[in-house]
Amino acid sequence: TLSNSRETLWVIINAPAENLSSLQESIPLLSPDPDDIKQWQEKATQNNMELRAAKYAVEAARSKYDSSHAGHYPTLSLNASYGFSDADNSPFGDTFGGSETTDSVIGVNLNVPIYSGGFTSAKTRQSLSEFDQAKALHEQQRRVTIQQTRTAYLTIKASILQVKALKQALISTESALEATQAGYEVGTRTSVDVLITPGNLFRSERDYAKSRYDYILNL
Hints:
By secondary structure, the protein is mainly alpha-helical. It has helices spanning 2-13, 37-47, 49-68, 119-186, 191-218, and strands spanning 75-87, 99-111.
């Protein structure tokens, strides 16, 4: 298992995982700052990128829905053009022939849609449904963001307590090992007891180490 874990780490860092440093024996157990779950919840709802993206999606869907109504509205367009031509048909220049023409046109076009086969109405209903969907997804992401934030906060608090508790368990297991060895020497404990107690100690050391690493990762 250790060898496979080193191979997995190699995939991540693209280098042999040979000399790996462990955590120092004493690490500071810091609570989230500020130590207030409501403030973290507020920070998350303001700064979470997925929630921001969902908010922009709602705004885009609202704009699309508003613009879909435009298919029912009359349109008024203004067109303007200007043309100039200079034609010279005489070999002696403009003095003996030729013509100049200037043409300016301005037009206004009013288009009033009467009926377009229900396409505009169907498109508007579709845009409304997409707008409702975007709002629902935004609300879902808001709830997920709050849940993830509160879970992360509570996990940190629980990790601190777990590290402290497993440290005390390790101390107790070490004392139990010493007591078992002393009892074996005076004949009150058997060799089986002496063999079982170190196993408990190793498990306590493993659990204590894992709790410290879990705390770092959770933090």
